[in-house]
Design a protein that fits this description.
The complex is a heterodimer of chains A (277) and B (279).
Chain A lengths: L1 H21 L1 H6 L3 E2 L4 E2 L2 H32 L2 H15 L3 H27 L10 H25 L3 H9 L4 H12 L1 H17 L2 H6 L17 H8 L5 H36 L1
Helix pairs in contact in A: 1-12, 3-6, 3-9, 4-6, 5-6, 6-9, 7-8, 9-12, 11-12
Chain B lengths: L2 H36 L5 H5 L2 E2 L4 E2 L2 H32 L4 H15 L2 H15 L6 H26 L2 H9 L4 H12 L1 H17 L2 H4 L19 H10 L4 H34 L1
Antiparallel strand pairs in B: 1-2
The chains are: A mainly alpha (277), B mainly alpha (279).
């Protein structure tokens, strides 16, 4: 607990003065992040983070929940255990490795495959490949282990009477899964999604390598963006004193977002405990 | 069975199977792609030589040493504190409000993004305590990151020790301390080891936090106050500056192999614990 207090105190102590100096609203809602000109508006960074995270959830959540249903309800026990073991191993791969993979595979793929598709609708679209799309895809892969693991636990924890009762009144396996198991495991699945979201927002190294780090409001899904985490990691090495404080202030914003998400996840998960009884 | 129901069934199984295969496919592709491209470049020279021209040539020996060094510092501090805290929560405290708050804080600690740990480490260890960019600052930052993992896994394994063991020990006249040290803890060794191994895995793979606290020198760190560069950080520098594809692949493959070994070890030990407790 001392460590949490220390972290809070030191990050806030270094960041708050900058926030106050530039004005709360201007800091949070200013749409220009130009540290060299003394303009510290983090809106482009927040939007960048939200876009990438949103896309990651859009791809990662359906895939993850479907895999969880597959694991807990369809696959026999033995192969399911192997599948689960593989996913757990993958949760441990360092994020910089995902970033490297994204850089050499996903970024060119976005340029070669997604750009032509978008050009059908908008002939003037261009991209370097470093984009929301690439970042979202890589983050989607990174949050899969979290979403699959926790959702699978939640679905497996549904009492077997529910399943048996549903099957006994003539529902088949699909109807049982979709109308009984998933709704019963709803809170657990929701908690897994929120934690996955936390992971996506807090992720640094992977997005740093693949989103392009351009602190402008993006116009399309193939535009480059800068995220909260990436900006801190990138600019910390050459920042002067005022700039550094602003980066600490960005850290405060991140800290608060994650803190709130964790509290929500806890709340949702604890409601699951009540519902299960 | 009506045809619409049948069609829905087919769609259901089709979608679920396709998405699951996609999940597995993504994950396997990453590992296979990186290890197959990197393994040929992991040679004896790569492991034992110093890097030359900023990592473009030569090996990564000092970097491996710095990684182990920082991880070791983190572990040496985190093990006693983490295990001690867990024992205190589970064996000594009565589960009052204070403990609940501490538990929430530990969970919050686990969720904090690594870059925020980096910021903190920079402000506290590097600047405030004056340790500079050093292996020690990096190790201390990593210690804070792996603490929740160790506390959590120790607590969980303490919970699996049956109450009757404690009661048996207390009833033959052992003190609470003797009971904890000689009866309860030996039962949880495997669970604790699993947690520690997972913590090591996290520390080895961590990048953002050490980037802001360890400097990034390519020299061999001898004293804990020397700056150093961990493998993940080295990989980031190689990637972002496009120095050498070969060396990046080799470092990535080595990292993945280390992490896979660490995690499988934790998993195997963890499974054995489960078997013993259910027996």
């Amino acid at each position: 607990m001392v460590s949490v207090a220390l972290i809070t105190v030191f990050v806030f102590m270094n960041g708050l003065p900058s926030m106050v100096e530039h004005g709360f609203m201007e800091f949070l809602l200013g749409d220009r992040w130009r540290p060299t000109n003394g303009l510290f508006g983090i809106l482009p960074l927040v939007v960048g983070t939200l876009c990438v995270t949103g896309l990651a959830l859009l791809i990662g959540v359906p895939t993850g929940v479907a895999s969880a249903v597959f694991l807990s309800d369809i696959l026999p026990k033995k192969p399911a255990a192997v599948f689960k073991f593989a996913i757990e191993l993958l949760a441990g791969i360092p994020s910089v490795v995902y970033g490297f993979f994204g850089l050499i595979i996903i970024v060119p793929m976005v340029k070669r495959i997604f750009l032509p598709i978008l050009q059908v609708f908008d002939p003037e679209a261009t991209t370097t490949g470093f984009s929301i799309m690439a970042g979202g895809l890589v983050l989607a892969i990174m949050i899969l282990p979290t979403v699959v693991g926790l959702s699978e636990n939640a679905i497996s924890a549904v009492p077997s009477d529910y399943r048996e009762a549903s099957l006994a009144i003539g529902a088949n396996k699909r109807e049982t899964a979709m109308r009984v198991l998933v709704p019963a495991a709803k809170s657990g699945i929701l908690a897994s999604i929120i934690l996955g979201m936390g992971r996506a927002i807090g992720e640094t190294m992977a997005v740093l390598l693949i989103t392009g780090n351009v602190a402008l409001l993006p116009g399309s899904i193939l535009d480059p963006v800068a995220t909260l985490t990436g900006t801190i990691a990138l600019e910390m090495s050459y920042a002067d004193a005022g700039h550094q404080q602003a980066l600490f202030a960005v850290g405060i914003v991140l800290f608060c977002i994650i803190f709130i998400l964790n509290i929500i996840a806890r709340f949702v998960a604890s409601r699951m405990g009540v519902g299960g009884k | 069975m009506s045809s619409s129901k049948r069609r829905k069934d087919i769609a259901y199984y089709g979608v679920i199977a396709a998405l699951s295969v996609f999940t597995l496919f993504c994950l396997i592709v990453i590992i296979v792609y990186i290890t197959s491209n990197g393994l040929p470049h992991i040679t004896w020279e790569f492991l034992t030589e110093r890097p030359r021209s900023m990592g473009k040539e030569g090996g990564i020996f000092p970097i491996i040493v710095a990684t182990l060094y920082a991880t070791a510092i983190a572990l040496v501090i985190a093990c006693p504190i983490g295990i001690g805290a867990a024992v205190f929560f589970k064996e000594y405290s009565k589960g009052g409000r204070f403990i609940q708050i501490v538990r929430i804080f530990t969970e919050v600690l686990a969720g904090i993004p690594s870059i925020v740990f980096g910021l903190f480490g920079f402000a506290f260890f590097v600047v405030f305590l004056g340790l500079g960019w050093s292996v020690l600052s990096g190790g201390l930052t990593l210690f804070m990151m792996i603490l929740p993992t160790i506390v959590r896994s120790t607590e969980e394994s303490l919970e699996t020790v049956p109450m009757s063991y404690r009661e048996g020990s207390l009833s033959v006249g052992a003190t609470r301390w003797q009971t904890t040290v000689k009866v309860v803890l030996p039962c949880c060794v495997k669970g604790i080891v699993t947690g520690v191994i997972l913590g090591v895995g996290r520390a080895v793979g961590e990048t953002a936090a050490v980037m802001l606290t360890m400097g990034g020198a390519l020299r061999l760190p001898l004293s804990p106050f020397d700056a150093g560069r961990t493998m993940s950080m080295h990989m980031f520098v190689l990637t972002s500056e496009g120095l050498s594809m070969e060396k990046t692949f080799a470092t990535a493959a080595l990292l993945i192999i280390i992490i896979l070994i660490i995690n499988s070890a934790a998993n195997l030990i963890g499974r054995k614990v489960g078997a013993i407790n259910s027996a």
